[in-house]
Design brief:
Helices cover 52% and strands 12% of the residues. It is of the alpha+beta class.
């Protein structure tokens, strides 16, 4: 990742913006259990920036 991740938990919109993908893609990853690990806060989904970083690194390692 070229941009540093914020230190707060990320919303699906934040994650979509950071990765330059549609927000629906983030929800599809969640439904298919293929994206970064997320968690619920009430009815809202959040992502830990560290989990996102680890997931991106694993995607890069698989592509290499």
């Amino acid at each position: 990742m070229t941009r540093p991740l914020p230190e707060r938990y990320l919303t699906p919109v934040d994650l979509a913006d950071i990765l330059s993908v549609p927000v629906e893609t983030v929800y599809q990853w969640r439904r298919k259990h293929t994206g970064p690990r997320g968690f619920r806060v009430g009815r809202h989904v959040r992502f830990d920036p560290e989990d996102v970083r680890v997931w991106v690194e694993s995607q890069m390692a698989e592509a290499a």
